[in-house]
Write a structure and sequence with these properties.
The chain is of the alpha/beta class. The chain contains 6 helices and 17 strands.
């Protein structure tokens, strides 16, 4: 069993930030990331609220800068999926594919996955008109009518983006008001080719080889209608990727890891940061900050030494 000093599960902005701060502090971090580095950064079309990042930059551009820091510091990245974590006395045992590692400390930065609607046709048409990433797939439907479901920042940002490439965008929301920030709502309402369908939920997705229509139900009067669309983009929240932590550290009813302000979990040598953590604000800047804090907390534990936050 290979021994590691600090293992970091997840290679998004929180995990990479953690690794950079840990390396600069003198630790030897190892990132476990089965997919490409970046996490949800890869799906962000535009960044406007991250200090020192030029407004209008894409997530991919920001990722290039961040990943270059990981490479320049020679931080090891293992392209392996962590399947199990076990807390033993003063160490963590990590099962990854068909390998096992032990680590003096662990940072869980596993992020979150897009939440599904759970309606008929969703899985059948996944990749054939049903998508969870407007930035990735929107251009495939240029000059066509599309729909998006949700009412938060992501849904509104996606609708604005889609309106620039699609002929018509229907935004379907189950309530009579949006939850997105005011400046995003203003831009949304200014787009002439976006139509909001209020107080409605999706009941069924239909088509032949690709999506052709969706069945909508009004939650106020129960009236059902059919909307013709070439695609449905789903932006109804996220589900934390914390199954590997079940029974090891405390998580809330939503599956998010509970930590203190130093990112420490209910286990003294396990920390958590980013979208998998219970927190009031989910932004790139908070994920990066939490990663840095988790790194220094792990350093203090591993070195039994004080370090200023």
């Amino acid at each position: 069993m290979k021994e590691l000093e600090l293992a970091i599960v997840g290679g998004g902005i929180a995990g990479m930030s953690c690794a950079v701060y840990a390396k600069r502090a003198g630790l030897n971090p190892v990132i476990f990331e089965k997919a490409a580095l970046g996490g949800q950064l890869m799906y962000i079309n535009r960044i406007d609220n991250y200090p020192a990042v030029k407004p209008g930059s894409t997530g991919a551009e920001f990722l290039n800068v961040l990943s270059s820091s990981v490479k320049e510091l020679n931080i090891e990245v293992k392209e392996e999926a962590v399947t199990r974590v076990a807390a033993e006395e003063s160490k963590v045992v990590i099962s990854s594919d068909d390998k096992e590692y032990s680590a003096g400390s662990l940072v869980v930065a596993s992020g979150a996955s897009f939440r599904k609607l759970g309606v008929e046709g969703e899985d059948k048409f996944a990749g054939r008109g049903v998508s969870w990433c407007a930035v990735c797939d929107g251009y495939f439907f240029r000059d066509k009518k599309v729909a998006i479901v949700g009412g938060g920042n992501t849904a509104v940002e996606d609708a604005i983006y889609l309106s620039s490439v699609c002929s018509k965008v229907y935004l379907i929301h189950r309530r009579d008001k949006l939850r997105a920030l005011d400046y995003l709502q203003k831009e949304l309402f200014d787009r002439s080719n976006i139509e909001i369908i209020w107080n409605s939920v999706i009941k069924k997705i239909s088509g032949d080889n690709f999506v052709k229509e969706i069945e909508i139900e009004n939650v106020v009067d129960d009236k059902k209608s059919v909307l013709e669309t070439s695609a449905l983009f789903i932006a109804v929240g996220i589900k934390p990727n914390t199954d590997i932590c079940a029974g090891i550290i405390d998580i809330d009813n939503g599956g998010f890891v509970i930590t203190d302000e130093y990112m420490k979990t209910s286990c003294d040598y396990i920390y958590a940061c980013g979208d998998c953590r219970k927190r009031p604000l989910r932004q790139l800047i908070t994920a990066a900050s939490e990663g840095a804090i988790a790194a220094l907390s792990a350093y203090r534990y591993l070195k039994n030494s004080y370090v200023s936050y």
